[in-house]
Design brief:
- The longest helix has 19 residues, at 26-44.
- It is built from 4 helices and no strands.
- The chain has one domain (2-102): Cytochrome c-like domain (Cytochrome Bc1 Complex, Chain D, domain 2), CATH 1.10.760.10.
- The N and C termini lie far apart (31 Å).
- It is globular, with a radius of gyration of 13 Å.
- By secondary structure, the protein is mostly helical.
- Helices cover 54% and strands 0% of the residues.
- Bound molecules: heme C.
- Heme C binds at residues 36, 39-40, 42-44, 52-54, 56, 60-61, 69, 72-73, 77, 80-83, 85, 97.
- InterPro entries: Cyt_c-like_dom, Cyt_c-like_dom_sf.
Length: 108
């Protein structure tokens, strides 16, 4: 679907432009939360309770430590539809998402 691809490209460009080394500021938090709800939510459900992908609520991902979860987000889950997000978000952003998913900050 070309329109979806175009949207993804725009999002990737915006994210890349906004990405900067190191800290995650207030603007980043709003942007990343929206990104997780929309982009991750398209498969995992807008409230992250599952869809094509499994639920991502804290109890569902409790078995992952933050480092492993960050790697799942960056590199995807081989042999499944879960893509790697490396190139769309940087490592700091993936770490923030991992942490936010683990403490349930985004689904609220
Ligand atoms: C194209 C659909 C799709 C998108 C978009 C997507 N995922 Fe996934 N995700 C999957 C599938 C399919 C799996 C593997 C099967 C499963 O565990 O549900 C998966 C697995 C995962 C897992 C492992 C879950 C577990 O219990 O083992 C995590 C964590 C995860 N995704 C996080 C994310 C995050 C964060 C995003 C957004 C940056 C995202 N996903 C975007 C489809 C997607």
């Amino acid at each position: 679907m070309p329109s979806r691809l175009a949207t993804s490209a725009v999002i990737a460009t915006l994210l890349a432009a906004a990405a900067h080394a190191g800290d995650i500021g207030t603007d980043d938090v709003a942007r990343l939360s929206e990104f997780v709800r929309q982009d991750c939510g398209s498969c995992h459900g807008l409230t992250l309770k599952g869809g094509l992908g499994s639920p991502l609520l804290p109890e569902d991902i409790a078995h992952y430590d933050k480092k492993t979860l960050t790697e799942v987000i960056l590199y995807g889950v081989p042999t499944t539809a879960m893509p790697g997000w490396e190139g769309v978000i940087d490592k700091d952003e993936a770490e923030w998402i991992a942490e936010a998913l683990k403490d349930g900050r985004i689904a609220e």
